[in-house]
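The data are passed on as follows:
___
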Amino acid sequence: MDRKQLIVANWKMHKTPAEAAEDAAAIATALGRLPDHSSVALAPPFPALVPVRERLAQTQLLLAAQNVHSEAQGAFTGEVSAPMLKACGCDLIIVGHSERRAMANESDAMVQAKMKAAFQHEMGVILCIGESDSQRNEGQTFKVLDKQVREAVKGLSVTGVNSLVLAYEPIWAIGTGKTASVDQVQEVHAFLRETLADCFQTGLEKDLAKQTEILYGGSVKPSNIKDLMSMKDVDGALVGGASLNPETFVSLIRNGFDL
């Protein structure tokens, strides 16, 4: 079983529902039919999920949410649950993004609880992990990533593993214009694949872990996506700023998938 390629647009807190729907339609129309081994997902803000899903109907593009609460319902003002996101038509949920970890003080335990909620309601998870500039400079990259992965997947079932995508986003490269070299990215992705496989004990789970897609995120652009995805253990990208303009994002996808 070969791993698939996946490119995800994280629109963060940009675009009104109308703007997001218009851009989603433009992206879907420009791309047309994708190769069977390649997928594209759009992650608009919560208010735009339903309008974007309507525009993606009858297309191959997937819908992703940017966050989720660990509980299915309750007195959690301002939060959104997995059942709500499923009802909106979400296929995937981004969990543990560095901005959530930093601004909302999300711990590894909170990230794991959110993952379990998504899996319980049969949605895939894009688990974001990454080290800060100071952690990299202090030689802590692999220690930090190892802890983030192990804490997140602890206790997961085979089904959970099969629905998991890892997204390596070095914090020092997000929105800074800095990009890790392709050799640095490959080294980290290979480490993450080995770490994930080491987290599971049975043969079936190990096989599934080997098939986990690992994305890179950190100032990904049309000009560097092809080199990044040429690396053995890079299966795609989680794209921020370069996904906001439909033409730029389509160009990035075509370069990444070699269309």
